[in-house]
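Structure (tokenized):
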């Protein structure tokens, strides 16, 4: 097992020095889901909630979160984000919406945390905008789907059906 890169020899938190690392194209994709009651799900899907365009707002919130990840997560590097997108998929049987966030940069460190943060904030935004209709919504399954670039190369999560 590799050592934790955010700890020094004494076990203290440090920001990883990426200054000497090669700049490569980096991509990451993360997903997660939110489950809600049938009434709330239908209103979101039809775009007929009291607060307006839930998914449009959640998409913008997710992209904004990608750009602010280094302000939210200690020791995360501030990155020049070249591309960020948030997409949604409806599950009519489970009354759930899956969000997927993809992020791209060229740099010395990856964008996995940015993709995970983007999908998390997109789902939390849906929850915030819909809480008047369903206080029991459930967010689950937030995970990295894939990443590419850098020394460790490509990773495709074998556990995508959790």
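Design, position by position:
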């Amino acid at each position: 097992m590799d050592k934790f890169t955010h700890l020094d020899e004494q076990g203290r938190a440090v920001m990883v020095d990426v200054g000497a690392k090669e700049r490569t194209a980096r991509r990451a994709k993360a997903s997660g889901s939110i489950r809600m009651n049938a009434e709330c799900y239908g209103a979101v899907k039809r775009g007929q909630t009291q607060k307006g365009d839930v998914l449009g707002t959640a998409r913008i919130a997710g992209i904004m979160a990608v750009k602010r990840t280094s302000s939210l997560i200690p020791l995360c590097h501030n990155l020049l984000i070249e591309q960020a997108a948030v997409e949604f998929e409806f599950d009519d049987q489970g009354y759930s919406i899956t969000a997927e966030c993809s992020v791209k940069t060229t740099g010395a460190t990856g964008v996995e945390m940015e993709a995970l943060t983007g999908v998390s904030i997109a789902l939390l935004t849906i929850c915030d905008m819909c809480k008047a209709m369903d206080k029991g919504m459930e967010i689950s399954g937030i995970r990295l789907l894939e990443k590419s670039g850098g020394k460790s190369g490509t990773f495709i999560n074998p556990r995508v059906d959790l």
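Reviewer-requested clarification: Strands lie at 24-35, 83-91, 96-107, 138-148, 155-156. The helical segments are 38-46, 54-67, 69-72, 112-130.
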